[in-house]
Design a protein that fits this description.
CATH class of the largest domain: Alpha Beta
Strand content: 5-15%
CATH topology of the largest domain: Rossmann fold
Number of helices: 20
CATH architecture of the largest domain: 3-Layer(aba) Sandwich
Amino acid sequence: MLAGRRADSLRAMANPTVTPDLRLHRNWRCDRRVGYGPAQRGVVDRKSREAAWNAIASWPGYAPTPLVELPGLAARLGVGRLRIKHEGKRFALKSFKALGGAYGVMRILERETGEAVADIVAGRAREKAAGVTVCCATDGNHGRAVAWGAGIAGARGAIYLHEHVSQGREDAIAAYGADIVRVEGTYDDSVRRAAEDAARNGWIVVSDTSWPGYEEIPAWVTQGYTVIMGEAMEQFGGDRPGHIFAQAGVGGLACAALAPLWEDWGADRPLVTVVEPHEADCLYQSAVQGRMASGLGSLETVMACLSAGEASPLAWAVLETGADAFITIADRFSPEAMRILASGDAGPPMAVGESGCAGLAGLMAVAADPLAREALELGPDADVFLIASEGATDPAIFEDIVGMTPGEVGEDS
């Protein structure tokens, strides 16, 4: 009985802020003294991270994305230092998804053709790859990465888009030669339809969302994402951040940000806060309920690439006891973050998309709430790291929100 009352007390203290702008859950299941264990290594470990980085670093056009200082915004938000990694510079796709989706495709083709990834990327296995069809559901960026990877290798791609994916994002995917399948409903509906069609046609699903019996490929995708953190950890040098705000849809990016830090730095890792929109809150609900749970929101959010109602079990294996906090935020923070970054008032002008700004949007929401700042130990000397996970991947939406084209901001559309 005493143990039960103590658990109830911990849960009560874990939710210091619930407002129209911000909901915050301080993860009472996270014990930072606990090491990175077998359950987490089954998703990502040092060996798989190194393999992904070595492979991706050999691809044409690879270069580490920049780590950008934002001194003006740090002062405005009342923190000591603010750095953001600009994934809008990632290959030609302008999104971190280029790492996971394309790497997943290459690992699949390696398995299916028996050829080395280097030969597949170089186009020396196109005849064998032509017999493989890969497919996926997407909010935009993941499908673009899968289509890009399939196109490089000579495989066929079939990309499933739910009804809320913009025409601009569809056009960007189709430009890589993939077949487009539109699905009525939400992202989760498109996930189910892609899986059904793949089973019927003998295709291979490339997803960062796992389910029972489907774990190997999502793990490869997540391992590709860890290149971001590998680069960042080198770029930090001796100046390690104390906080990370990592946006999440099904949880792949947040998992890939946390896993290397937990495995390599242990209890000395930064405090990691997972950020979701109010209306797509599956990880927040899972944390609050202490088990995998579906989101309770409508899934209608300006942060469209985070519109997921169900978390990935693989990502949850890392985030469940490794993430320090989970927050959800009102949509209004994302457009504001986009405009601030584009203006140049934060630091060098940056064109970042509505989902790519979600980590910054979460920081802005917390910085404006004294109780939340206290709960997350976000003081005036805090050193914060963010990931701008996408550039202006839909230029029309970007211009509509920001009032400038990416070119006017100083970046190509």
